[in-house]
Structures are given as C-alpha cells and as structure tokens.
Amino acid sequence: MSTARPSTPPPPPETSQAGAASRPPLTPEQVRRIETNRLKAKAIRDQRDTEARNAGLSRTNSGNAAGQKRPFAAISSSNVPATSRDARNNGASGGGGFSKGTDDIQPAHRFSKVVEYDFSKMVDTKGGFLTAEDDPHNKALHTPSEEKPANMTLQEWEKQRMLKTLRDSKAGPFEPGLSVLKQEESKQCRECGSMEIDWKWDDVFGCRVCSRCKEKYADKYSLLTKTEAREDYLLTDPELKDPDLLPHLDRPNPHKSTWNNMMLYLRYQVEEYAFSPRKWGSASALDEEFAKRESDKKRRKEEKFRTKLHDLKKRTRVEAYRRSRANKGARGEFGDDLSRGGKHEHEWGQTVTHPDTGIGTKTCAECGMEVEELEF
User: Are the C-beta atoms of 54 and 62 separated by less than 8 Å?
Assistant: First the structure.
C-alpha cells in the first residue's frame, strides 16, 4: 500500500505493463487546463463564501467541504434579520451583539389586532373593565380610591378615615364653636332656640334644628325617599333632581352597596312645595288628584280586561261555527271528535304565557285546540 501524499497534479497511477500501453500519459496542455479549471472553481467558492459572510446568512449551498465550520460572522447576532423571533437576541445592545429591546418586539401577524391592557390600573365599574383614559367623563373612574396606602398602617388609616367622616359631618372636634357672647350672630334651632343644631342638615337642607326637636317633631322633620316623595306627593323626577327646588341628602343604598345612593328629602320641605300654588295648591287638591289617577288606572285596567274578554268570545263563536259546519248543520260542542263522531278527551299541555298580552294558553296534544286561561 502506497503512503505517498497526493500532490498537485496527482502523479499518474501505477499501472501494470498491460494497462500502460492502453492509457497514454497526459500532455502538458491537458495538465495546464486541469490546473486552470481547479483555480477557477476555488475562486468561485471563495467569492460565494464572502457574499454569504457579508449577508449574515448561513452557507448551505456554498460548496463547503464536509465537516468544515461556518465562520463567526455568519452566525453573529448583529446581522440577525428582522423576521427572526429568537428571544436570545432581545436585550440591550453591547459587546454581546444584543441589539433588540423588549419594546421593539413586534407581534405575529395573526396577533397584530390584539389589544393589551394593564390590569393593575383598571377599575371595576360593575359594567366591564375600563380605564380612565377610555372614558374621561365617567365619574366612577375618577373618584379617589378608598384603599389603604402602602406607607400607612391599618390603625393610621382607620384614624384618617374617622377624621374625614367627622370633618364632613362637622362633628366632634370639627363642630363649630358655640359662644354665649355672640348669640345674635350664632345659628339657633328654629323650634326651641338652642344653639346645638345639626350642622349637616344646615349645610344640606338649610334647616337649623337640633337633635331633640328632630325626635320631638318626627312627623315634620322625618326623611322621605325619592320613591315616597314621587308616589305620595305626585312629584316628577325633574323636580326631585333640582337641588335648588328640593335639596336632598345622599346616603348609601342599604339594600345593595353597588346600587345608586338614596336621595332623602325633608318632609316639611316636600309638603311646602307640594301644597304651594306652584304645584297642587293644597292638601285637598293633592287628594283629589290622587283619587283621579287611581280611578283612571282602574278604568284602564277594566278596559283592558273587557277587550281581552271580547276577543276570547269572538274566537269562541268562530270555533262553534266551524264545528257546526263540520257536523253538517248539527250543533257541535267543545270536546267533540269531529273526524270520528265520538267524544274526544283532550290532553292539555303546559300553560304558555303570551309575551305581549300576558294571557296563558294551553294546547291539546291530539287535536291542537287552544284554550286561554284568565286569572281573576
């Protein structure tokens, strides 16, 4: 076995004496062409390697020999194409070649219409999650939150809330001072002349009355809800919503905290307006209007019932006429089997209430007869 290293051009293989005569040696011209073609192929390969290195693409068809490594420039992250979504290439630009940041990451095409929200900044308005930027005119989104600050203990926060409540109600240390030296200038109760009046009622209703007189004259200084004022004194919503006409006190709804606040009115103020010439004129006129509306309501209810009853009678006559025609002039009764001439037993289904009329209807499963039910 020959251990000689091949050279360029390779020496002619050793042949036997019989094969030497059949294969003539290469001429100098053939040797020159072989060497020229080899140098051209090598130059083309080097040119392709340079182009692939500059483009930053891996060389797959460049003609590398088996087992040869790719150059570092071909796999450097500085030449990563824009379509690459390799998370290892996202970071601050530096010596490591990381040139992309987290803000520069673009979503995939199928997720380009997805909108991302910061859930930590959203407020639950019981109607969906919205931010203050989405609805700048919504008061519920711009109200200050009642959550405990992070830099405050629970005892300090409770104390702050209690002081805020006392400040709003002008109670405790925030109650206005009383002086016997300036009785002419101080505010006094309209019933007993006491200076210990309810300052909250003075601010909201403009009524100067003390706590003892509120309990003593409960029929005069009791609070009415908006529903009671509308139904008992026949006031309209625009009148009840006018703070200049009828001032009201807002209180949290006792039935459910998420519902609208209660609007409380002072009874004597509501009666003064309702009995004044601007509204009904007197209590007797209010009673007459109330009786008139009740009679109109009863009359409309009776008219509606008579209309439904007349319609039921009309359908009953039509059904009786149809059965008479089917029996060839003989009088037919409800429940008769017209096809066989015998007695038919109805099998009624469940009562179905009509959404418009509110009348319940039952249908026979065999003959399809419908019967309406009226509740008195």
Answer: no
259 contacts: CB under 8 Å, gap ≥ 6: 253
207: nearest Cα among 186, 190, 225, 183: 190
Q: Which two tokens stand for residue 359?
A: 């009348």
Q: Around Cβ 269, how many Cβ atoms within 10 Å?
A: 19
Q: Give the tokens for residue 299.
A: 């009359």
Residue 275, Cβ density class (10 Å: 0-12 exposed, 13-18 middle, ≥19 buried)? middle
pLDDT (tens digit per residue) in 6-32: 556 556 555 555 555 567 888 989 999
CA-based nearest residue to 240, from 201, 279, 293, 200:
279
pTM for the whole thing? Answer: 0.42
* Residue 265 to residue 223: CA distance in whole angstroms: 5
Read off the amino acid at residue 46. Answer: D
More confident residue, 167 or 299: 299
What dihedral angle (degrees, nearest 10) is formed by the CA atoms of 284, 290, 294, 297?
Answer: 140
| Tokens found for residue 350 | 């469940």
